[in-house]
Write a structure and sequence with these properties.
3-hydroxy-9,10-secoandrosta-1,3,5(10)-triene-9,17-dione monooxygenase, 12 helices, flavin adenine dinucleotide binding, AcylCoA_DH/ox_N_sf, Butyryl-CoA Dehydrogenase, subunit A, domain 3, monooxygenase, alpha+beta, Butyryl-Coa Dehydrogenase, subunit A, domain 1, Butyryl-CoA Dehydrogenase, subunit A, domain 2, 10 strands, AcylCoA_DH/oxidase_NM_dom_sf, four-stranded antiparallel β-sheet
Length: 390
């Protein structure tokens, strides 16, 4: 796809600028408007957007490859780009009227999100009343709509549905609470909603996304939009962490080529066989994480393009590989940090930022390894894996 390839090339050309802005993003606790404009100018945010709104409907590997490269230059920018960028994919699943609400006047409109169902939802005539507070809405400063997760109550204590609700900026406020040790530049602030009305067409059931049967598919029939939410979104979290590990690796090797270890009688670090082994192990971990992710996405796309049903075992494997990808990337960053020596703890050294950013990304709920791996194990033993569908 020529357009998507041009986007990837444009993103690569932008990387030196993003690398130079990394400290500025951390200091400001948000990436700059100039960075968002620069990414938009490459066409990055249109990669997963429907073609009828000017998008590229690109292969997920193209999108994730760009995210990895951006995060290798600046972890916070890669995180925001990944999360905001995938929202155009999810918006394609909403009813057509919701898509028109967001993109009808401006196809470049961006959305932030917070999916943990921490607010209050009440079903009313024509839609829902939504109130409460949602945390960790990355890039919210640069968005004019937000996607919020919420549980629709049913009879008794049984939820009727778990949905994503779409709200315009006029219906919520952003509260600046983002004072953290990692991913400081993501501006992942709180979203506060005070009894907003959300029309029914601005809601999307997670059950529908799990079954891969959503109202937006009538208008956006491309195979891209028949992949499960649970196979796409988790990898938008893991991919930036793989990117951070990639950036840490590149920074580490560059630094170690010139480093002389004073504690070891002036030995060049590059000549140390133990250091060489640590570098090799880190490289193997990063490569393994990326190869598994791309292989999974390629298989998913191959099946949906052929019109075939996605087997549950594949969907479970995608989640298994996603959490393992995060683990491998963190393992690589830790090994490189430990191998970098005392100067890696100086704030002027990029290694400490990669280490902090990667560990901050690690604590995202989607990276819970035991939960995902136990689902895979249950599937292998022929037990119920209903949780894997979301």
């Amino acid at each position: 796809m020529e357009g998507a390839a041009a986007v990837a090339s444009g993103v690569r050309d932008l990387l030196p600028v993003l690398r130079d802005r990394a400290q500025e993003a951390e200091d400001r606790r948000t990436i700059s408007a100039e960075t968002i404009k620069s990414l938009a100018a490459t066409g990055f945010f249109r990669l997963l957007q429907p073609a009828r709104f000017g998008g590229y409907e690109a292969h997920p590997v193209t999108f994730f490859g760009c995210v990895r490269d951006i995060a290798a230059a600046c972890g916070s920018t890669g995180w925001v780009a990944s999360v905001i960028g995938v929202h155009n994919w999810q918006m394609a699943l909403f009813p057509d009227q919701a898509q028109q609400d967001v993109w009808g006047d401006d196809p470049g409109t961006l959305m932030s999100s917070s999916y943990a169902p921490t607010g209050r939802i009440k079903a009313v005539d024509g839609g829902y009343r939504v109130s409460g507070r949602w945390s960790f809405s990355s890039g919210s400063d640069h968005a004019t709509w937000v996607l919020l997760g919420g549980i629709v109550p049913g009879e008794g204590d049984t939820p009727a549905d778990f949905c994503t609700f779409l709200l315009p900026a006029a219906d919520y406020t952003i509260e600046d609470v983002w004072h953290t040790i990692g991913l400081r530049g993501t501006g992942s602030n709180d979203i506060v909603v005070a009894d907003a009305f959300v029309p029914a067409h601005r809601s999307l059931s997670f059950g529908d996304t799990a079954r891969c049967v959503c109202p937006g598919q009538e208008f956006n029939p491309a195979p891209l939009y028949r992949i499960p939410y649970g196979s796409i979104f988790p990898n938008t979290i893991t991919t930036p962490i793989i990117g951070m590990a990639t950036g840490a690796y590149e920074a580490h090797v560059t630094y170690m080529r010139e480093r002389v270890r004073a504690a070891y009688a002036g030995t060049r670090a590059a000549d140390d066989p133990y250091s060489q082994v640590r570098v090799a192990r880190a490289a193997a971990d990063v490569d393994a994480a990326w190869l598994a992710l791309t292989a999974d996405m390629n298989e998913l796309m191959s099946l949906v393009t052929a019109g075939e049903r996605l087997p549950m075992r594949l969907r479970l494997r995608v989640r298994r590989d996603q959490v393992r990808g995060t683990e491998l990337a963190i393992q690589a960053v830790d090994r490189l940090f430990e191998n970098s020596g005392g100067r890696a703890i100086y704030t002027s050294h990029p290694m400490q930022r990669y280490w902090r950013d990667a560990h901050a990304g690690r604590v995202h709920a989607i990276n819970d390894p035991e939960r995902a791996l136990s689902m895979y194990g249950r599937g292998e033993f022929g037990l119920s894996v209903a949780d894997a569908m979301v």
